[in-house]
Amino acid sequence: MPCSAPIYQCPFMIDIVSTAESAPFVTAVPTADVDRDDGAYRSWLKEAVRKVRAESGRSADTHLLSFPLPEEWGIDLYLKDESTHPTGSLKHRLARSLFLYALCNGWIRPGGPVIEASSGSTAVSEAYFAKLIGVPFIAVMPRTTSGEKTRLIEFHGGRCHLVDDPRSVYEVSAALAAESGGHFMDQFTYAERATDWRGNNNIAESVYQQLSRERYPEPAWIVATAGTGGTSATFARYIHYMQYDTRVCVPDPENSCFFDGWTRGDPEATSDTASRIEGIGRPRMEPSFVTAAIDRMMKVPDAASVAAVRVLERVLGRRAGGSTGTGLWSSLKIVAEMLERGERGSVVTLLCDPGDRYLDKYYSDTWLASQGLDIAPYTATLEHVLATGEWA
Length: 392
Hints:
Layout: E1 12-17, E2 25-30, H1 39-58, E3 63-67, E4 75-81, H2 91-104, E5 114-117, H3 121-133, E6 137-142, H4 147-155, E7 159-163, H5 169-180, E8 183-184, H6 187-194, H7 203-210, E9 221-223, H8 230-242, E10 247-253, H9 258-264, E11 296-300, H10 302-316, H11 322-341, E12 345-351, H12 365-371, H13 376-388
Parallel strand pairs: 4-12, 5-6, 5-8, 6-7, 9-10, 9-12, 10-11
Antiparallel strand pairs: 1-2, 3-4
């Protein structure tokens, strides 16, 4: 799949200079007056950026759902419902930011494919934006990714490249980009920097605006699960920038290295097994996971995550993906801790994507049995805390 973007010759002569007193450095000596402005490309770029920004204007903000807790507890729990985005997940915001970042950096060119390493939801959203601006899209994903996600990627005009080893998605994506002359979007590196964390209608600013008339407008805790780490970084940075007292907790599923890397302060931590909770958990410490910005992490059993999404369906009548369950489990644990300490306040977590994408996984007893997951004791824990406020 060739890239039609022009290939420019480097207008510099590169000298590598090394002395005993200093480390090697590069000097660039101009050798010609080169005008890199391509009128056709600039016209295409302006129109591509316009289309992406216009899409943002057409998308209403997502709802902040109230999870019912007894009034006398003095604690309010909310779920930011990101499943209502046009592509059905929290990753819609990320994909929009990544496309704007790459376009404005000059990395995406007319006709050149965009390639992404993903566990599914980001790829669905990126396929949507690639189609919007008229470039091909290839998603590199683990073969275990849900069939519904691959269907959605293809529905939006993307192509799926499945790999057996989830740890290989980075290298395969980079190789495909090099072979095709395209751009490797690399969400796991750029997620935390592509989003304007100071505001500009990011998810953190949206949450605080929606809470402004609630009885506890400044939440005690925000609970954000991590795939890239970009969302937790956005929340944490915005909180620090606005000088709020809110703390950020990041729950981590089984088979993810984030918790171990954070607790041990080990940026080289890895996991040899892929996460069963799609969209969160990683086999390596991703560059976008800003460990110093967050306040707390929890390790959540996968069976607990599944139990939580099933309890969510019973209480709110809404099906959600497993990452929502990971966040809800941790949020209810924090609620119980606040009650035990006699604290009042609010807790916010995320409804990341709809459960319809996972009917053959988290809502399938057959799948649970095949994975050796018993959700009964975790369901009992959740029902107990909802009835009594105590964490069993």
